[in-house]
Amino acid sequence: MKTLISQYTLLAALMVMVFPLTLQAQTSQTGDCAGEWQLTVEQSKANYIRHDPLAVWIPAKVQMSAETARCAGSVVLSGELNRPVTINARGMRQQVYLFDKQKRPLADTHLGRGKQLFLHASGITDFWLRIPQVEQMVPGMYSGVLNGRLNRASTDNLQENSMIYFAVTPVVDLQLAGQCDGGRNDYCVLDFGQLVAGKQKQLELLIRSNASVDLTFESKNQGMLQRRHGNGQVPYSMKFAQHPLDLKNRAVHTLDARHRGAVLYPMTVRIGQMQDVPAGRYSEEITITAKAR
Prior knowledge:
single chain; Immunoglobulin-like; 2 domains; disordered N terminus
């Protein structure tokens, strides 16, 4: 006899919004250093790369005239008060790491007051901002300060500050595993064979989320195995993480935000008492829906 456990996943896409960041300054007319420079974080161009799937890479660049680039040599990048660059939301802090165009980490300055980005002679220097462990970040609008200081040989450093904004929305993903006797990624088939009271099967539900999650369990036959042809029902019970579920109605179980990340939860399906049950094939379908909030 077969029991069909099916899975429906409500996946809220991880949305990343990067607002344009522009630092601009006008150099004084001293020697060959006259000109303008710009520091820009590219808008809405967050990248995920295969070997670093849990991080977001945001492209950025420094633009200036070739004359200014030759005179300045490098730009020093840092957060507020020469500290590491961070973004913050709802009391949570996430460090932002700086890399060159080849995704190599930028080196500290000799005084340890920022990261040094050497400028390309063409006047355009690309680099990256890397935000790690985005999957585990609490949803919200993150903000932080990027400080840019232009190193110049003939005059004092030029410095500007601007805000960085980065939005993370709630996200959840589900995956069933365990004693599945068939199925695909989105559903699992449990085959109990000959139905016997007390017989049970174990399942595991892997939940990945960065927020609180509402799980809904819906039974097609209100917690009963239904005979495929003709009358006949067999009761069963189901537990999620040791909590009994009332499948006569829509069962809702809430996981709070303390369970962020990837967590494996046990589930058990157990055949109930059987009396005067006619022979035949019995089946049931349970749908699990997850919503992050």
